[in-house]
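The instructor's notes for this session suggest beginning with a concrete chain rather than abstract definitions. Hand out the sequence below and ask the class to guess, before any prediction is shown, which regions might be ordered.
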Amino acid sequence: SIVVGGNHACALAADGTALCWGSDSDGQLGDGSSETYTTTPTVVGGGFHFAQLTAGDIHTCGVTDAGDALCWGANGTGQLGNGTYAGATSPQPVSGGIPFTAISAGQTETCAVAASGAAYCWGDNQQGAVGDSTFEDRSAPTPVVGGHLFRWIRSAGAHWHSKTCGLAEDGRNYCWGPDGTIGNIPVISPGNPGFESIVPGGRRLCGTTGARALYCWGAGALGDGVVTQYAASPVPVFASHGVVSVGVSLAYTRPSHTCVVTTEGETWCWGRNTSGQLGNPSNSAGWLMPVPVWAP
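After discussion, reveal the predicted structure:
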């Protein structure tokens, strides 16, 4: 697997070894140094064997096979979860000794699912991304209020718009963070058509159901042919195809883009295209509905 942060990337090898490359300005590569950047994969220090990795803007976290959570890199808002606000150039244990099964980094915060199913978050909480009903930054794992038990969790978004969504064991999707009706406590996703997965981005969220139907909501080009100021409830998108995976741009300050892979193995994208991010050279401005990625 590969995860991508703000200006760095990390990969998980078959044996659980983590390797990172790219910007190392704050030690986010985890090799014990803080070089300007590294252009080749560098082994993360400590000899840990990870089951999962996640990358924020300038920090990185992972969960080991034993359920231990470790983070490294920038820590100005407490996103490393080690009880301090000091950065680290090598993996540091997340405090509390809680066994985790999944972890997800937003830009400057981190959330994880414990083995019990309870959700914990830490880091930047100025807009309620920790989900503890406050707006105070947290430097250690803090329980998300509501007592919900989660199967999975996903954090994403830019600083003032970071949000987290998760699928609870009761089959409902909950989100928290500063977007529309989302606040500093988990709320049920409006108009939930039975999502099995939700992917939050900078301006919108998209979700897929068990039947592989795609829905998006939020702002910008949702993929239904119009530019939406804000849609509070999920809008059906791409009804003629089933979708197996979704990628939503983290950009918030400008129109952004979304891409999907269909059940037929095709890749389609829509939204902003001024840098060629849709993979379709026929229009430099963008598309309001899905168009196939061009292949030679």
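Then share the key points. The radius of gyration is 19 Å. DSSP finds no helices and 24 strands in the chain.
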